[in-house]
Design goal:
single chain; 570 residues; alpha/beta; Rossmann fold; 4 domains; 7-stranded parallel β-sheet; 21 helices; 16% strand; binds adenosine monophosphate
């Protein structure tokens, strides 16, 4: 592995990289920097975002810029305002020890007057979005005459966004251009054409495979019915408590609707789409960046160029129409050596697209089951436990509260306190998912992968299907569902009374779990369950009711003696 010293960079740049904690150059840096330092060689870098490409062009650019010449010598063109600001921020960090170099960002949606003033100060590097740059050229506020180096970053995105003519205009209006450096995640034919027209025998470097998705991304898909898309989305979010993600929709109406629905249901989410003003867009992006928002829902156009670090998940609410767009979506996660997950909610009729995307990303999709309600509850439960264990109590005055807390909880066992704490956070999920249905569309696509989170005790796919079919069958025959209400005994079942109820902190699901755990019986033996504040009635198949009574009656629950008997013989 090489070092930054070996690449031949200015000592001040090496110092900056080491202060940033960069130990070794990334692959693209190792390949690009020695070539770019010449300043005269055209260059094509095929690299995904997250590979360290900003430093791959930023560091050599700072090295070859003439500090004493106070006019624009380098122009970096990129698709969006966010990316523009991010590039400037990174360059500012790299040039920390090069006080004579100035860099400015010019992008749409911000005051052009202020940007013109900044340009007049005498800057050497201009980072621009195409539209604003053309605007400035037309106002004669920027002179490209002396530009020696043009960097096109995320060239494929710029072309996708319809900036082809602008890019050509910029390349045609930089007469003193000594070299052009083009970076792109994919190499569509239009980019090839532009490079042939404006570049001279470019030195081409590929990091990973051309058109390939980032290997650090786990590509998953979930098959469900079209009408279950929203529910499936919620499950995926709930199953990943620490998610920091972007959800992609095809239309702005969907983005807006889903954001509103999820917000009403208590999720930290906002939408990014073309109808927002620049100020609204900045607000949303600001909140997402500082993690006030855990989730962002966006259309493809609105999300282009967004570069936020640390995205854990990308969720495709629907697959994109244009499969190339999948690469841009999934590339938002799994950056800078991190791993990420790209989850696609897929309808049975869309599965044909998966093959084509697999060819494009040169990676395979994994089919994963939509988590069951039980999976979600368990995951949330462990997340609450982890949160309690990881909470920092070293600062603050917690010691002073201790005597008061001890007094308040004097008669409550440690186990009960833990249960109650979990319930405070966990209730919403337990209630919501108590009788949640299976959202998987079986018999479609490839077989689901067995996941770590899969409920080891639950029957596998086919078994769950049978269980679901069983319930449906019963209701179709007009029989009562497994855990229905009512107060008359059903033939074949014994109706048991028990002196436990909701006042004991039980919900139906936790109560069922409790009596099944105590009696070591399977839930299939249960019939109707009727819970009241202080007591409950449980229907148990006649053959199993004695075991239930034997295992519960006389036992203790939270210091109270459980009484269970056959209600009819009472
Ligand atoms: P980019 O592909 O330019 O968006 O870079 C992705 C991230 O990788 C940024 O946060 C950089 O600060 C970081 N990065 C770039 N080069 C290196 C390096 N050599 N070592 C560690 N991190 C790096």
């Amino acid at each position: 592995m090489m070092t930054f010293e070996e690449l031949g960079l200015d000592a001040r740049l090496i110092q900056a990289t080491s202060e940033l904690g960069y130990v070794n150059p990334t692959q693209i840096q190792e390949k690009a920097i020695p070539v770019l330092l010449s300043g005269t060689k055209d260059f094509i870098g095929l690299a995904q975002t997250g590979t360290g490409k900003t430093a791959a062009f930023g560091l050599p650019l700072l090295h070859i810029i003439k500090e004493e010449d106070r006019f624009p010598q380098a122009l970096i063109v990129c698709p969006t305002r966010e990316l523009c600001m991010q590039i400037v921020n990174e360059i500012e960090l790299f040039k920390k020890h090069m006080k004579g170099i100035s860099v400015v960002a010019v992008y749409g949606g911000a005051s052009i007057g202020l940007q013109i003033r900044d340009l007049k100060r005498g800057v050497q590097i201009v980072v621009a979005t195409p539209g604003r740059l053309i605007d400035l050229i037309e106002r004669k506020a920027i002179n490209l005459e002396q530009i020696k180096y043009v960097v096109l970053d995320e060239a494929d995105e710029m072309l996708n966004m319809g900036f082809k003519d602008d890019i050509e205009f910029i390349l045609q209006n930089t007469p003193k251009r000594e070299s052009t450096w083009l970076f792109s995640a994919t190499m569509p034919p239009e980019i090839r054409k532009v490079s042939k027209k404006y570049m001279n025998e470019p030195f081409e470097v590929t990091v990973g495979k051309v058109n390939s998705g980032n290997k650090s991304i786990d590509h998953q898909y979930y098959i469900t019915q079209a009408q279950h898309r929203y529910e499936t989305l919620k499950r995926l979010i709930d199953f990943n408590p620490g998610i920091y993600g972007i959800i992609f929709t095809r239309t702005k109406v969907d983005a807006q609707d889903i954001a509103e629905k999820l917000t009403r249901e208590g999720y930290d989410i906002d939408a990014l789409h073309g109808d927002l003003t620049q100020a609204q867009r900045d607000k949303v992006m600001g909140e997402f960046r500082d993690k006030t928002l855990q989730l962002l829902i966006a259309t493809d156009v609105a999300a282009r160029g967004i570069d936020v670090q640390g995205i854990t998940h990308v969720i495709n609410y629907e697959l994109p129409d244009d499969i190339e767009v999948y690469t841009h979506r999934s590339g938002r996660t799994g950056r800078a050596g991190n791993t990420g997950i790209c989850m696609s909610i897929v309808h049975a009729r869309e599965t044909f697209k998966l093959k084509a995307i697999e060819r494009l990303i040169q990676s395979t999709f994994n089919r994963v089951d939509v988590p069951t309600g039980k999976d979600v509850c368990r995951k949330q439960f462990y997340a609450v436990m982890d949160k309690i264990l990881e909470t920092d109590i070293s600062h603050g005055d917690y010691d002073t509260f201790l005597p008061m807390l001890q007094e308040k909880f004097a008669d409550v066992s440690k186990e009960e306190i833990l249960q109650r704490m979990a319930a405070v956070e966990f209730d919403r999920f337990l209630k919501y998912y108590e009788n949640a249905e299976d959202l998987n569309l079986r018999d479609a696509g490839r077989q689901p992968r067995t996941r770590d989170y899969a409920d080891r005790n639950a029957p596998a796919g086919g078994g769950r299907e049978r269980e679901r079919g069983g319930r449906n069958e019963r209701s179709e025959r007009g029989e009562r569902p497994a855990y229905g209400g009512g107060n008359t005994a059903t033939a074949g079942y014994a109706r048991l009374f028990v002196n436990l109820g909701t006042k004991d902190g039980f919900y139906k699901a936790s109560f069922v779990q409790f009596i099944l755990d105590m009696s070591d019986l399977k839930k299939e033996v249960l019939g109707r369950i009727d819970m009241k504040d202080m007591n409950s009635w449980v229907e148990v198949e006649e053959g199993a009711s004695h075991q239930m009574i034997r295992c519960l009656d006389g036992k203790n629950y939270k210091g109270r003696r459980i009484r269970m008997n056959d209600a009819n013989s009472r």
